[in-house]
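Exercise 4. Each item below gives a protein and its sequence. For each, produce the structure-token representation.

Item: TetR/AcrR family transcriptional regulator (Actinomadura logoneensis).
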Amino acid sequence: MTTARERLLDALAEIMRTRGLAEATTKEIARLAGCSEALLYKHFRDKEELMLSVLRERMPPFTHRLLPGEDTVTGNLVATVHGGLRFYRRAFPMMAGMLVQPRVLAATRESLGKYDAGPQEPVNRVTAYLDAERDLGRVRADADTSAVAALLVGATFQQGFLLFFTAGPEGPDPAEEDAARLVRPLLPSLLPEGGSEGGRG
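Answer:
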């Protein structure tokens, strides 16, 4: 039997997917989950925390593990992009309504700020990972890690949109090679010449 928390996550995910974030009132979320609004606030501080939980628990993981020193830099970036392609393809229909409604967008931007969350999060996480790998000597000392992270996440976003546009949110998963193709052009600016990518694990 599913818990009330799981039903609330599923309810918001369904509303975001089929009707958009603007229609996701706490009253409607609770109704669809078969519980009271009071119970919603017992599990989540506000709708924004519930939305973040949906993105983190009901969507494909974006940034892989990204543990500095583990596996290889190339492998970690490919795994991250692979997850990002699946994430963005599924997220587009959920977020589309918010993007075309200025009031909803402004309210969401302000609310997510309370949790230091938002579309900048993947870039920040990849940058932090690359900075840590640079400290370990597995990334070039002169690498512009923030630029590489922005280029990588930006390309992932665009390709994720194309996947959604051509096959919809439930289309076939992208191949790992699709992710590797986005990572390869950036490797010369990241990896030390003649350096080893060996890591723990």
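Check: The mean pLDDT is 87.
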